[in-house]
Amino acid sequence: MKYYTYYPGCSAEATASPLGISVLPVAKQLDMELVELEDWNCCGSTPYWSVDKLEAAAMAARNLALAEKTGFDLVTPCSNCFVILHSTNEYLKEFPPFREKVGKALAAAKLKYGGGVRVRHLVEVLYTDITPEGIGAKVTKPLKGLKVAAYYGCQLVRPDGFDDPESPHSLDEMVTSLGADAVPWEMKARCCGSSLVMSEPEVALELINKLLKNAERNGAQCLITPCPLCQINLDAYQSQVNSRFGTKYNLPVLFVTQLIGVALGIKPGELALSQNIVSPMRLLSPYL
Amino acid sequence: MTQTTVKSPGTEMAFIDEVCSIPGGEAVRSCIQCGMCTGSCPTANKWDYSPRKAIAMVRAGLREELLSSNSMWFCVSCYSCTVRCPRDIKPADIMHALEIIAIRSGLSTKRSRTPVMYRCFVDSARNYGRVYELGMMIKLFMRTNPFSALKLAPVGLGLFLHKRLPLKPSRIKGISGLKAILDKARALGGAK
């Protein structure tokens, strides 16, 4: 059994709840003990970094201070939370005056952070600690014949990811270990438009359309991604893309943990498959 | 482009120093204007001034023109520029720094809804310690264009029907401690 402190992030409990729900049974099956960080708060996310950097870092640092007490690596399934918590760690190391101010802010709640937490993305933990072979060994329902486009998005692999920032391969290897076919496609680490989908929908819809087109052209029957925002953009906004561009996409977009869960023989209910907007049920029925 | 304010109003600081005072900002000094950032940016065609130009404008002291433009608000934080920059500048971080200065100076553009969206997000995170997504979206549309919400209503409804849009916010237990941390950070006066 491997032990981790678990940081779900806000989305995993709301708009990305299929992620938050499916992580738990998958981790259990893979002998990972994820202990949720007690009373964690929002990581601050990119918007806070763009409004006030010190407040944003203080917000992230509260989580790091709480996590430090647990003594385990802090693991999050959310790519944006990962970048924010990881970058905060780096900034605190790199800029001593900044660290001092964050320390003073934390002291207002009697907290202290010594810089000792290792922040990790769930995908990196699955790849490095559990390994694709380790996952493959536990597969009970090989996803034979399923063509999957592994979509990494941005923040899993940039700016400081564990995989190649331009042409990553970790998720493809995991897809293969599940018995499925990882389709090669060019846009696997290109941007989905992120939160601009709300403030500048036209810009984001264009980017989403490019991604879906590229995945479909390369024969994908579905996509997988670890990132809450990427999943929402590609899944929940797919119908908007169809009406805006006259396309007819019907591509299920699964969280990586949902697909792993299916191959591990976990029941659809435990993987929240009914919560995906573009239903994956027909496509996955041979494996359920 | 015309050369205007070089000194930042209310300070004796040149614009470039103001940007450099934000952690991660200093690197602008080593830009060689190669354009790799612009070439890598998925939204560069929407920016009033491309990422490369924005960095040149920081160095030229074109403070008001740049801070009131829509440029940095189109940064999607994809970090393609950051991993490709041959001078190890982190252009995405520079854009975040410009957003901070634009908001602080009251210059952030009204032509993009992104500044308002970011504020709504921050309010939500401060009030609850978690992001209350539905509340944030409603606030964003009320503060910008309530009618544009109609277009996105089907998306919201879809998420709601799939149990992905909780109607109520969840608040952390330690909210008073978190507020004390954030108030102290604010009192310490930004990241300088």
What does this structure look like?
The complex is a heterodimer of chains A (288) and B (192). Chain A is an alpha/beta fold. Chain A has helices at residues 17-29, 45-49, 53-68, 79-94, 96-107, 122-130, 132-136, 170-177, 196-199, 201-217, 228-235, 238-245, 256-263, 281-284; strands spanning 2-6, 32-36, 74-76, 119-121, 147-150, 181-182, 222-225, 253-255. Chain A has 2 domains: 2-122, Up-down Bundle (Glutathione S-transferase Yfyf (Class Pi), Chain A, domain 2); 141-287, 3-Layer(aba) Sandwich (Rossmann fold), CATH 3.40.50.11810. Chain A is 46% helix and 10% strand. In chain A, the strands form 2 sheets. Chain A has a 4-stranded parallel sheet with strand order 2-1-3-4. In chain A, strands 6-5-7-8 form a 4-stranded parallel sheet, with helices on both faces. In chain A, strand 5 (147-150), helix 8 (170-177) and strand 6 (181-182) form a beta-alpha-beta unit. In chain A, helix 3 crosses helix 4, helix 4 (79-94) packs across helix 5 (96-107) and helix 10 packs across helix 12 (238-245). The longest helix of chain A is centred in the last third of the chain and has 17 residues, at 201-217. The mean pLDDT of chain A is 97. Chain B has 192 residues and is mostly helical. Chain B folds into 2 domains: 15-104, no CATH class; 114-187, no CATH class. Chain B is built from 10 helices and no strands. Chain B has helices spanning 15-20, 36-40, 51-60, 63-67, 80-84, 91-104, 114-128, 133-143, 148-161, 175-187. The longest helix of chain B has 15 residues, at 114-128. The chains are: A alpha/beta (288), B mainly alpha (192).
